[in-house]
Design a protein that fits this description.
The chain is of the alpha/beta class. It has helices at 3-9, 96-114, 174-190, 232-242, 296-310, 327-332, 346-358, 371-380, 399-407, 420-430, and strands at residues 15-23, 29-33, 36-40, 48-56, 60-70, 139-147, 150-156, 163-165, 204-212, 217-224, 246-253, 265-271, 275-279, 282-286, 317-321, 338-343, 364-368, 387-390, 412-417, 434-442, 452-459. Helix 2 (96-114) runs parallel beside helix 10, helix 3 packs across helix 4 and helix 8 (371-380) packs parallel to helix 9 (399-407).
Length: 460
């Protein structure tokens, strides 16, 4: 039977037996029904299920599990109930050891899709397990809303704008969760106007909490829809009394309903300007918007792996592209001759300069801007860079930066990726000028399909 015919015959709600063969790049199970590919969330390889069609496309089907006839031995029998409710637990139904194995597979699938030069020969090391598999997240952004007169604070139900009121979250640190619940109670007691999605009224729309593992302190940021923050003084007083771990309270103003959570203006309401954290024996200051890896304990391990891949020495002039608050460059500064850091967020560069001082590191220079603009300028000014670490956002490397990296190849390049797809795509270009020595997947986000990868590249 021709594949397209079967998709024409099927409709939403139809059911059929399905054996799951592998995991897709978004963590969903993949099976084949009469040679047509079927994507089923929460299904695991070797599951035998009854699949119910949720969506019909010309070349593939989406389904959901109607019933599990025979559960795969990869399944976690103690899946938290919340896994079906909210995001961030897409892999919680899989045993942890198998999660690591599937993460390496997701990396392989991505390489297979984009096919960078000689990718079949790439050495993919076993995924490095996370120190903690639960309660590892040091930050949370909780939307808060008034719905039918009741105040909810938590996370959105998977794939919807429906807010689930959360008392607990298996991946979140305890202190963060208990502080969030206490603050919600204070907001209710003080009758602070909370955002109502129906009427588009109310002021407070999000509570952001970040936790320092080393110092057991919390940084709280309230995201509001107007500069006026009613009863902020009473709220701050109560937080000081009831949550002594809070060391910093800020307000970020995001007037528009724009896609990003954060508005441009952040002001400190009380306490410390920064939250401090220790990474591999170095101290770092983080302002509310600065980027810090979400899994603090695993970050030490990640940076060790970056160090192993780079093999820094005193002749190296290191470029830390996408440097954030300077974490990677500063932890390597004493092993190299000089570090140049580039970052697009001005506050992060201010933080980076502070952090260099804080750690008595004096061989760093920082630039505000995009790496694709500033790196070529550094080369033009005769700065000789021979080692580079890139740690880009999920979108991967900028086109112009890729061009510069391939036209002026350095001896050593380490790519820290948080998205296997964009990594594989970027390796297509990079493999013209660099040889991939190995890929090291690292689990920074247990219970999710996210894979962090450290790639060691050397000049051809």
């Amino acid at each position: 039977m021709h594949t397209n015919n079967i998709t024409q015959e099927l409709k939403v709600g139809d059911r059929f037996p399905l054996t799951i063969k592998r995991i897709g790049i978004n963590g969903e199970g993949i099976g084949f029904f009469k040679h047509v590919i079927v994507f089923v969330p929460k299904a695991v390889p070797e599951d035998v299920i009854v699949c119910e069609v949720t969506d019909v496309h010309e070349r593939f089907l989406n389904g959901r599990i109607h019933k599990i006839r025979k559960a795969s031995h990869f399944r976690n029998p103690e899946t938290p109930k919340l896994a079906d409710e909210v995001g961030g637990l897409e892999f919680a139904h899989i045993k942890y050891k198998e999660q690591l194995h599937f993460k390496a597979n997701i990396l392989r699938e991505s390489l297979d899709k984009y096919k960078p030069y000689a990718y079949q020969k790439y050495m993919i090391k076993p995924t490095v397990a996370s120190v903690q598999q639960e309660k590892y997240r040091n930050k949370a952004q909780f939307p808060i809303q008034e719905i039918d007169g009741e105040i909810r604070c938590g996370l959105y139900k998977t794939g919807t704008q429906e807010l689930v009121d959360l008392e607990e979250m298996p991946t979140q640190m305890d202190l963060t969760m208990s502080a969030m619940r206490k603050i919600v109670q204070m907001v209710k007691d003080l009758e602070i106007p909370v955002f109502n999605p129906e009427t588009k009224s109310g002021i407070l729309s999000m509570i952001v909490i970040r936790e320092s593992v080393e110092f057991n302190q919390l940084q709280v940021t309230f995201i509001t829809r107007s500069p006026k923050f009613i009863k902020e003084h009473q709220l701050i007083e109560r937080i000081q009394e009831e949550i002594p771990e809070v060391s910093s309270i800020s307000q970020n103003i995001n007037k528009e309903d724009k896609a990003g959570v954060w508005g441009d203006e952040t002001k400190l309401l009380w306490g410390d300007k920064y939250l401090q954290e220790d990474i591999n024996g170095y101290l770092f200051n983080f302002s509310p918007r600065a980027f810090l890896q979400l899994n603090s304990l695993q970050t030490d391990r990640l940076y060790d792996l970056v160090n192993e891949a780079l093999e820094p020495n005193q002749r190296d002039v290191l470029l830390d592209a996408y440097c954030g608050v300077g974490t990677i460059g500063i932890t390597m500064a004493n092993k190299v001759k000089h570090v140049y850091g580039i970052e697009i967020i001005p506050e992060a560069i201010e933080d980076a300069k502070e952090n260099a001082k804080l750690n008595e590191v004096d061989n760093t220079d920082y630039y505000v801007g995009s790496a694709d603009e500033i790196y070529p300028k550094l080369l033009k000014d005769g700065k000789e860079v021979n080692a580079i670490v890139v740690d880009p956002p999920r979108t991967g490397l900028d086109n112009k930066l890729l061009t510069t990296l391939t036209r002026n190849p350095v001896n050593k390049l380490v790519y820290v990726s948080c998205n296997p797809s964009t990594l594989a795509k970027d390796l297509v270009r990079l493999s013209d000028s660099y040889r991939v020595v190995y890929l090291q997947p690292v689990d920074m986000f247990p219970q999710t399909p996210h894979v962090e990868t450290v790639v060691k590249l050397i000049r051809r």
